[in-house]
DNA sequence: TAGGCCATCTGGTCCT
DNA sequence: AGGACCAGATGGCCTA
């Protein structure tokens, strides 16, 4: 290879690098646009790329449930769908953004009812059904529907004999690794507790077994932010570890609002 | 210090 | 030949 050819090669490589950088910047811009239409958007605490994609997938799925089945965006199922497969911090963030109110949450055992976990197609073959082949599973705690929102002191209902017809929404099968169950106590703080069932793929609390608790100090904090409905005084916002960014978007989650926001966002891009 | 996340560089492949 | 796309490697930054 002559020196001139080497220089041509080098120049070509530099150009290719610049193009690649530009391409990745475009990709990141698109990802930022996607972040902006997610239920919780914050400039200061950005969702990671993978979490953005997961949340987007869940969001589309949840919204399609709203449109098709009239499910309420304020229902627990909606929150569960949004948080499915997300990391614990992201789940906390989403839950915080959704302003889980003072009313205790009772878990909809969609997944257990449907036997969605561990393979098996979702009931009804939802177009956004899980699993997503090739989508890596989160290597961390996941706020999964079968794990989430156990009330402190809440005794798990008998999920052992679910009716096969009970699940109309087609909860997608879980595509993440087994993680210790996450729970929400009456103050909705999230915490991952060690579980003797960690090695089991399908974790189901025994009837009467208290599922895992949550501590307020593990829930998002918004010490200075203004939350609607006086939520800032709620224990969930006195947390330490997962801080809710002050600029996080607290949205009104009515279906019309969501759809409008999606369309306007699409038009603006 | 380990692990997660990210930006960047790089070489390979496919297409025009 | 050159551009777009992709995936692996690498190093930096941050946090627990």
Automatic annotation (TrEMBL):
One Pfam entry name: HLH
Biased composition, class Basic and acidic residues, residue ranges: 194-203
Domain of life: Eukaryota
Alphabetized SUPFAM superfamilies for the sequence: HLH, helix-loop-helix DNA-binding domain
One of the protein's GO biological processes: axon development
GO MF terms held by the record: DNA-binding transcription factor activity, RNA polymerase II-specific; E-box binding; protein dimerization activity
Domain (BHLH) ranges: 11-63
Region (Disordered): 116-135, 160-213
Keyword Transit peptide: no
Keywords: Developmental protein, Differentiation, DNA-binding, Neurogenesis, Nucleus, Transcription, Transcription regulation
UniProt GO cellular component terms: nucleus
Biased composition (Polar residues): 162-171
Subunit structure: Efficient DNA binding requires dimerization with another bHLH protein.
Protein name according to UniProt: BHLH domain-containing protein
Annotated source species: Poecilia mexicana
